[in-house]
Amino acid sequence: MELITQVLIGFIIIILGVYYYLISSWKFWESKNVPGPKPTLPFGTVGDIVSGKHHIATYMKEIYETYPDEAIVGVYNVFEPIAVINNLDLIKDILIKDFSKFVDRGQEFNDYHEPLSAHLFNLEPKRWRPLRNKLTPIFTSGKLKDMFHILVECADQMERNLEKYDGKIVDMREIPARYATDVIGVCVFGLQANAIQDDNSLFRQMGRRIFDMNFKTASRILIGSFFPNVYKIMGYFLQDRVLENFIFGITKETMDYRKMNNIVKHDFVDLLMNLKNETGKLDNIELSDKLLAAQLFVFFAAGFETSSSTIGNALYELAINQSIQSELQQEIIEALNKSDGKLTYDGIKDMKYLEKVYKETLRKYPPLPFLTRRTVVPYEFAGTGIKVPANTRVWLPIYGIQRDEKYYPNPDLFDPERFSDENVKQRHDMAFLSFGNGPRNCIGARFGTIQTKVGLITILKNYQVEVCEKTDKSYDIKTRGILLAPKSGIFLKLKKVNY
To answer: What b/e string do you get for 95-120 counting C-beta neighbours within 10 Å, with b at 16 or more?
Structure first.
């Protein structure tokens, strides 16, 4: 009996020791006089995200608004201390001035369990830097002009498909998603996705699969993000092998077919093939088939989802704000009349009001509502006296900043004139971060912009969108997932008009 008591006491001592060791990390911000919410077991300060009460965007917005006068707020991702940066000058230091000290994105990923996660957005500096340099040329203005006809062809298919929805209630996230999937299928893989015409398009099925927050996907994101050490053990059981096999298979088949038949298209696949064929390595980084497939995957996923959601969000606001819709449609018709009804690359660049509507949509609904970075060396935040060690993560609350009335008075109002030249000059240049900023900004921003604008023009030149009984005007945000998305979709009534 005495032995059992001693073992029990020893066990309790070990448990208490582990407990106090773990919670000692919760003294990190207090020791630096950095304010923040009080951490609690078992999730630190992110329990509302894990439980699904908050999306990370709304969580960080709440932090941003709760501490409006603090440049830095300390939070805990379970036991990991993270700095939420509210001050725009400090954000500029992180993204631009001191970029070399924050070159690491700070994304938790495990490419052993999730080989598709080893893509440009996530990669650590060693692999990110050479890949970014080599992949950037595919997104130049010249390349976009060469691909412009593909966007127009996909938009024409969408326009023909819209005729059957005249006078009906339409999910204005699904239709743009099909259009964007077709564009990405051709521009990234060089293949016809047929998402617009075929309800059973495999590309569209895989696209839905990426962002479907089923139990396995939600578990993979939650455990991978908040418990990375646990994920190293059990991540194998959370893999999406169907999606992986699709991306790996289509990448290998496309590359093998082109090599066998000497096909050259000067597109993204060709660029990756040329990289591998040169030496098989890039700055001593092995360019494996899986690493190349991961790059195609991120441009497929981000390329269709961000553009389609922005089109849907823009149409949602235009349906609510009919006068803005009318002004934009007038600009579109006048521009098309100047080019004999044809959509041109230069014509889109000249549509100034469209640019304002586009930017205001991204302000209210940034697809990626926050940014993360991680220090690669010890760092002191300018003017604060706050020093942090290497490998400290920072979160940048885009959603909170872009809904801050200091920068955008009456922020819930949809007002494209916020992006007039005069108003933009009066704001801090870090007050709009929907594409990020600095060397690790969105590599596909130009492509996404032109793809989105072509989609909007194609719909609005012939149709008017209106709210209906299925329209959710509260725009409740899905709490599960990384990107910003409405819980109830975007349902609008589509009505054909003649100008």
So the answer is: beebeebbbbbbbbbbbebbbbbbbb
Q: Which of 153, 244, 246, 243 is nearest to 196 (CA)?
A: 153
pLDDT band at 7 (very low <50, low <70, confident <90, very high): low
Give me the residue label for tokens 């203005």. Answer: 141
With both helix axes pointing from N to C terminus, report the angle between 174-189 and 202-211 in degrees, rounded to the nearest 10: 110
CB 286 within 8 A of CB 297: no
* Spatial contact of 130 and 285, defined as CB atoms under 8 Å apart: yes
* Pairwise CA distance, residues 387 & 28, whole Å: 11
**Cβ atoms < 10 Å from Cβ of 23:** 15
pLDDT at 67: 97
| Contact of 460 with 346, CB cutoff 8 Å | no
135 with 294: CB under 8 angstroms?
no
Which amino acid, one-letter code, is at 85?
I
pLDDT tens digits for 162-198?
A: 999 999 999 999 999 999 999 999 988 888 999 999 9
Contact between 477 and 55 (Cβ < 8 Å): yes
